[in-house]
């Protein structure tokens, strides 16, 4: 019977964000604009960092990697969500598990990269003389590579455990994508082990990365208090303020989603939180990191001047 249930469910229906036609049209336009801005701005960051020698430093190396991840992080769910505004959003069982895998794979990498960027700022501000030695090219590549390895095992844990569950005849996932918690709600078996695993694994990785970031900034702020020059303190803080904003936004929504209990009311809140860190955060990342960055502004002006010369 369990085998019959599992094999009989070959597809799911994603209910999306809302069933109100007028709101669907509004959301389609808003999310589509965010997605286009996300692709253009993040691709711009990757191109700018790779083409400009003035930006060949660990901070911009990590920022380019974060932008690269953000492009695919949104692409995992947004195109499918946009299509669902105009038609019944059907996704195959294999497609659902694949989406779940890549969503958590890319999300895990993003969380680790944010922690790495916090550590990078700590070394740059608190140990500037050792910065080039500590954050050499090999270390930077190793840190990024490690984030990908952790992401693989983290996402495999969730996707493999979800794929082994028997599912009932109810095929509607109350979400705009295949996330682990709404998928578990459709299982015909006890999902206690799955839910505990989600909380423990996500909680462990989330708390470790968040702890590293918090400790890094505690030392940074202690160091900034020793700087007597107001302009020097302001310049050092400006390089960190954008990162702090993204960290609070990303980790806050992620922890609210995966560390809380599952209930009918929490599913609706989870959809809003998921919308924030799949649509809003990846779009705001390049804007927040570059809006006050004078070095990026200079490189952009130089790039535009080159383009005009070629024309």
UniProtKB/TrEMBL annotation:
<keyword id="KW-0472">Membrane</keyword>
<feature type="transmembrane region" description="Helical">
    <location>
        <begin position="272"/>
        <end position="291"/>
    </location>
</feature>
<keyword id="KW-0675">Receptor</keyword>
<dbReference type="GO" id="GO:0004984">
    <property type="term" value="F:olfactory receptor activity"/>
</dbReference>
<dbReference type="InterPro" id="IPR017452">
    <property type="entry name" value="GPCR_Rhodpsn_7TM"/>
</dbReference>
<feature type="transmembrane region" description="Helical">
    <location>
        <begin position="240"/>
        <end position="260"/>
    </location>
</feature>
<dbReference type="InterPro" id="IPR000725">
    <property type="entry name" value="Olfact_rcpt"/>
</dbReference>
<comment type="similarity">
    <text>Belongs to the G-protein coupled receptor 1 family.</text>
</comment>
<feature type="transmembrane region" description="Helical">
    <location>
        <begin position="138"/>
        <end position="156"/>
    </location>
</feature>
<dbReference type="GO" id="GO:0004930">
    <property type="term" value="F:G protein-coupled receptor activity"/>
</dbReference>
<feature type="transmembrane region" description="Helical">
    <location>
        <begin position="98"/>
        <end position="117"/>
    </location>
</feature>
<feature type="transmembrane region" description="Helical">
    <location>
        <begin position="26"/>
        <end position="48"/>
    </location>
</feature>
<keyword id="KW-0716">Sensory transduction</keyword>
<keyword id="KW-0812">Transmembrane</keyword>
<keyword id="KW-1003">Cell membrane</keyword>
<dbReference type="GO" id="GO:0005886">
    <property type="term" value="C:plasma membrane"/>
</dbReference>
<feature type="transmembrane region" description="Helical">
    <location>
        <begin position="196"/>
        <end position="220"/>
    </location>
</feature>
<keyword id="KW-0807">Transducer</keyword>
<keyword id="KW-1133">Transmembrane helix</keyword>
<dbReference type="InterPro" id="IPR050516">
    <property type="entry name" value="Olfactory_GPCR"/>
</dbReference>
<keyword id="KW-0297">G-protein coupled receptor</keyword>
<keyword id="KW-0552">Olfaction</keyword>
<dbReference type="Pfam" id="PF13853">
    <property type="entry name" value="7tm_4"/>
</dbReference>
<feature type="transmembrane region" description="Helical">
    <location>
        <begin position="60"/>
        <end position="78"/>
    </location>
</feature>
<protein>
    <recommendedName>
        <fullName>Olfactory receptor</fullName>
    </recommendedName>
</protein>
<dbReference type="InterPro" id="IPR000276">
    <property type="entry name" value="GPCR_Rhodpsn"/>
</dbReference>
<feature type="domain" description="G-protein coupled receptors family 1 profile">
    <location>
        <begin position="41"/>
        <end position="289"/>
    </location>
</feature>
